[in-house]
């Protein structure tokens, strides 16, 4: 009788283990197939502190307008206009006013969900597509629930302005003395950043200093646009233009 009871208990344990393994497998499969958050969903949960002059209701409306490809400008709390003019599952561009814009990009990581890259850009005056504008960008990284992460971990520097020195290069025909003199004209050093809507590429260039056209033409000889590639959970320099 004891022998039979032992067999029954062993069978019960085996059934329990099987049920437990099945449950774990089901939960794992369910979590793997959870739909990934889109930029639009993440945008709607953005804390008010990041853009204080857009209320939650306005943030809810903007992705709908963008997905319909209509001019969905909303009146912000500063009596100006904000518009989300580009939206994909992983990217959004929002023109906050005449001089400020932001870009949101979902970047994949190897050991967790995608993180959010936020690029804020301020421009002074109008922008000519054939010249470098005067302005400045800031890059920040967040989890999908808007906990801020270390910029240095993903960018390799505490701020994008700390990468300014990599955005000049000396032509072979230029003397070291001339190159040094031209670099000294870049004051202050401010970096403009643009993240691609199509891929995860980040392009960096120096803001145009307040110089005359003639001085800027001379300085332009040493300015380069640096392209950073997202790989293994951080940005790396791949080329210059």
UniProtKB/TrEMBL annotation:
InterPro entries: DUF3256. It comes from the Bacteria. SUPFAM superfamilies: PG1388-like. This is DUF3256 family protein.
